[in-house]
Amino acid sequence: MLLFACNTASEKIFSGYKEIDVFQIPPSVTIPGTIKQAGIWHDNTGENILLLSRTPDLTDIPLTLYDSSGQASIHAGQWVKTDTGYRKVWQLMDQVKQCELNLILNFFEGSTSVTDLDHNGIAEVTMVYYLGCLSEVSAYQMKLIMREGDYKYALRGFTCDPFLVETKKEPCISTDSIDLKKIRGSFTDEELAQTGRLYGAYQSASDFTNAPPVFLDFARRQWLKYRMAY
């Protein structure tokens, strides 16, 4: 089972948060696939439950399926307790399908965090995962999703492959240039890849335009932490 990341004092998980086992999940709280992570916390909205799952239930990394129908999906969801039961706050689903090559799809271990960065009493849930359908060793697609209730913020880009970085076949972009929107100019993704400015970067931080600045600060730190972590 994946574990929640440790946080600094200013970004600590609420004191009421705890991980729970599958048998402790209320019967009305369901999600497709095999549950890989479950947790519970309390904030100003009440009691909340978080579930992360994956289907099929294969733990090999990378997941390799040699079949034109090869596919896999990941799911995540948050539920809040009400007087009549549990109400779904949001649900995430992503997938890779019809992959005849190396099918890659997984959450980064330890990357899921529950925080209250803006101290408004409503928790943010941040998840980071990678995916792809590849014929050779290369960087994967990478996504960071942050949810605060109905609000969704995301960074989407590419990992750095540790082996290719070490052998200098694919450099990892410097930490001060990971927002491609700021450096793109007229370059295409292919041209950026050829110059090494694609790997380890995200496409844009525009989702965070109206968010508290601390949200993007935290998201960037998570991105840098996990872009070479698989």
Report the uncertain regions: 59-69
- Listing every helix as H and every strand as E from the N terminus to the C terminus, the arrangement reads EEEEEEEEEEHHHH
Taking the sheet with the most strands, its summary is:
5 strands, antiparallel
Number of strands: 10
Structural class: mainly beta
Q: Summarize the amount of helix as a percent range.
A: 10-25%
The total number of structural domains is 1
Lateral strand order in the biggest sheet: 1-2-3-4-5
- Give the overall shape, derived from the CA principal axes: globular
Oligomer description: single chain
Radius of gyration using CA atoms only: 18 Å
Considering the chains and any ligands shown, give keywords for the structure:
five-stranded antiparallel β-sheet, single chain, 230 residues, mainly beta
Structure description:
This protein has helices at 162-166, 180-183, 189-194, 213-226; strands at residues 18-19, 34-43, 46-55, 72-82, 85-96, 102-107, 113-115, 124-134, 141-148, 151-158. With 230 residues, the protein is mainly beta. The two termini are 16 Å apart. The chain has one domain. The model is unreliable at 59-69 (pLDDT under 50). The chain is built from 4 helices and 10 strands.
Task: Itemize the secondary structure elements and their pairings.
Elements: E1 18-19, E2 34-43, E3 46-55, E4 72-82, E5 85-96, E6 102-107, E7 113-115, E8 124-134, E9 141-148, E10 151-158, H1 162-166, H2 180-183, H3 189-194, H4 213-226
Antiparallel strand pairs: 1-2, 2-3, 3-4, 4-5, 6-8, 7-8, 8-9, 9-10
